[in-house]
Amino acid sequence: MEQELVFRALADPTRRQLLDLLFERDGRTLKELESAMPMTRFGVMKHLRVLEEAGLIVTRKVGRERLHYLNPVPIQLISDRWMNKYAANRAMALIDLKMALEGGSSNMTSEAKPKLVYQTIIKASQQQVWDAITKPEFTSRYYYGTTLQTDLSIGSPFTYNMYDGSAIVEGEVLVADAPNRLVHSYHSLFPPMNADAPTKVTWELEAMPNGITKVTVVHEDFDGETATYKGLNSGGWTWILSNLKTLLETGESLPEQY
Predict the structure, then answer these.
(1) Total-model pTM
(2) What is the spatial distance between Cα 20 and Cα 241, in angstroms, rounded to a whole number?
């Protein structure tokens, strides 16, 4: 059903145009999107509602405004199901060639607001998702093979460690409201990201009917489009959340080559 909603949402050219606008510059208001579309405010709202129901956009209230963010996780899951296992390498080569010939770029423009917002729906209880986020035996299976080290007390270290014990991400716990909300600082130790200032990650878990959990990740406090922003926006968070969903729903992780 989830993928049917995504396919239906993507079938409409107007909705694809709205996604393109958010790809060019994320975090737009309804007024900004309406000004770029040849239709009424009500028409834009209808299309945005379909995209939100499919999980392709996420809205966040900031002050008196509601901002719209592109959520690539559902598209990644479709790619994992329908493309990667068949011809991912050949398909990406053709896409790269097309972009090069047309003079385009797959990167977000410099106008993009420095905030990343992702959302996915997982067929697992809220407690199961919380455990997967906070326990090392789970993170090692979906978070690039790393084990999370933390006691979840406010101000305590929050690090993802490799198999040899070396940390690749360091931070500290800012909020731990199990099993609803987790906030921690984030500082990658990989160059060139290690030169960036620490940022902030918020995990929000919302229990839904029939044992389903809505997971929203907000990564913010970037000093512009830093190396950390670019690295995570280019697929880091999409991979982590896709792998988390696959693990909890099937018991198996995605193949590393994806």
Answers:
(1) 0.68
(2) 22
